[in-house]
Amino acid sequence: MTIINYEKTNEDDFGFGTQIRKSPFFEATVRWGAKAFSVYNHMYIPRDFGDPEQNFWNLVDHAILCDVAVERQVEIAGPDAAKFVQIMSPRNLGKMKVGQCKYVILTNQAGGIINDPILLRIAHDRFWFSTADSDVILWALGLAAQGDYNVNIFEPDASPLQLQGPKSRDIVRGLFGDQIADLRYYWFKPARLDGIEVLVSRTGWSSELGFEIFLLNFCQGNELYDKIMKFGQSKGLQPGHTSTIRRVEGAMLSYHADMGLDTNPFELGMDRLIDLDDEFDFIGKSALKKIQIEGITRKHVGLVIEGPPLPRPNTQFWQVFDYGGVVGQVTSAVYSPRLKQNIALAMVKLKCAHLGKSLSVQIGAKDFAATVVPKPFYDPKKVKARC
Q1: Domain 73-154: which CATH class?
Q2: Pairwise CA distance, residues 87 & 76, whole Å
Q3: Does the pLDDT value for residue 3 go beyond 80?
């Protein structure tokens, strides 16, 4: 992943063009201390507001505001929207209500994972896929072109901020009132802040209590970011970025790191999201039925890695060994200052996936002992996120 340091250049040196976009909150994040960016879904995202460990503690002790406009929305609208959305996902969406969100996966014809978005039902005939880093809109357009569906597929003017952490509800209550602050987990409502129209959901990529605030007018992005920050500062709110430490603690998966087109949902333990016995059809159903019958040969697990604290998250897929033979790879790894351990997610051969299994991980030229452990590493029932 390319990191661009803002302090060492000026805006012209970024090479901005139509192929890589700035978020509506870009200028505000720079004013509030963003120092470096990477690219996600063809848009710049802030990745550095200083010490990542301090960002972690700001999140778990207070609250942080993250520019995640890179989570682009793919809207499916029209008379056949519900039918079309169902053909894209193995999860039964038949009872999904307007105002509800669901975590879903999108699979291709081989059962590989294209994306793991949050789905929002905006209206009876209108849905948003809030996507991870892959071109879901192209997949959707391709499917629509091959079938007889009365749908309109496009990217709406909707850009989310994440307000996450234990103080986030108090901040949302002060900004939007009780109806929004008391939203149920994985539900959303429209709201307004001083004339700025938004949609607020009880979701987020942090494993903490949190909200996502979807701006509905790109031109008001910097104004919205500033208003939230200025109000929230008295309650401990800090500008920040999504925390790798906290997301690995919570075993939250990252597309391209922990999964991709060569990964199937059963390897990731996503069985609950695969409704193979229901009557509806979806892309990849026959492939997933075959995988279910034949069984998987590898599994995504949690690891504790011995040795000194990792200085940063992994930037490559470290090999995992058992008695000198390669049995898998680390997909995400970081040092947790709260757990005082190096924790990791890894894809390993099924025979090596049982709890307590001793393995080793090669980092650079050195081997470090590792042990398969339960995941998530912290708050396994996600009580904090659901509270």
Answers
A1: alpha beta
A2: 12
A3: no
